[in-house]
Design a protein that fits this description.
alpha+beta, Ribosomal Protein S5, domain 2, nine-stranded mixed sheet, five-stranded mixed sheet, Heat Shock Protein 90, 422 residues
Length: 422
Amino acid sequence: MSTETLGTVEYNEDNLLTLKDAAHIRHRPGMYIGNTDIEGMHHLVWEIVYNSVDEALAGHCKNIHALVHVDGSITITDDGRGIPVGVKADTGKSTLEEALTIAGSSGKFNNDAYKTSAGLHGMGAKAMNALSEWCEAKVWRDGHEYRMDFEKGYATSPLRDEGLAPKGQTGTTITFKPDPEKFGDLAFDFERLATRFQQISFLNKGLRLVLTDERDGRSEAFHSEKGIAEYVEVLNRGETPEHPPIYINKQIDGVTVEVCLQYTRGETKLEMCFTNNAYNKDGGTHLSGFRGGLTRSIGIYGKKENHFKDLEIRGDDYREGLTAVINISHPQPKFESQTKVKLTSPEVEGQVSSVLYEVLSDYLEKNPKEAKKICEKVKLTAEARIAAKKARDAVKDRKNALSGGGLPGKLYDCTSRDRESS
């Protein structure tokens, strides 16, 4: 076989490339935002919004505003403390520039400024900047307004002091336009943005988020005082609930476990999982812990009160008609990837399971009327599953009996197109 058919003739030091910061992000965007389709493009927004929400969790932000522009760009503004702008002694660059260009640069590694955070790796804002055609950062801090411009992940202007800020104003504004080289002609979707903003408002009581779209003039505000209990009620609109929402909030080993659940008479099950405000669409250890605690608490109570008798109950039987929101606050969570779609922190499973079992068991004991409804729901689901299996087995047995080669010919299934013989 000739060397031409093998591709590269030689493999040496010239074949090794070192890509850093924006260059690496642009070369392998999937590592940072999952993909370059509509979901990946919106992930750029989430990364900046998460930074603003982290300011809210730290007690320094009450309002977040997102404005979609006609040219396809988007502006996200908060009233937090503002990204620091001082010059770093070791690099000679402003903190703002490092925060938006240097991979691994973050104010969230030592937990001094942020006790919990969705931003863990120092990559989110850098990914947004690197995958944007252009970006403008504006900061109100220390009584001044600062600005800086970027293109495709690199600074194109020095940090500029624009003079005095409006009295008492602090915060950060990030405006960026996703790069068409990476995302083609994709456009921001108002409904997708609105859905996520609504989730964030439920997860953060008292935080106000506003979404405005210049393209058609639509605007929507999101604010919740009841938190995830209200979220569960919203998710169950149109369904008949079996009981009021059951709300659980307890801290264990530095991790806050917040759960709200409600059974309805429907068959749909919905489990929404979040860690430090990041939506974990693939669940993770908090979801498995929730399921374990749910099964154990209801199972033990149901058997003790003789609701299940000799019925065989399976895991899925406990979740039919269930709507649950599982929200975890963790100082050092571990995720499957930068996109945070799945929580992998092993200790969380036991923590959530323990909290849920303890609090839900207590609820069932103190609320026998609601407990009976929940157990009846589980029982009916199990009975329906068993009956369906028996029906399927009966059909299979009949088919096997009628088509088996060992039966006499007169017992074979017969078909005929002759009306008289039929």
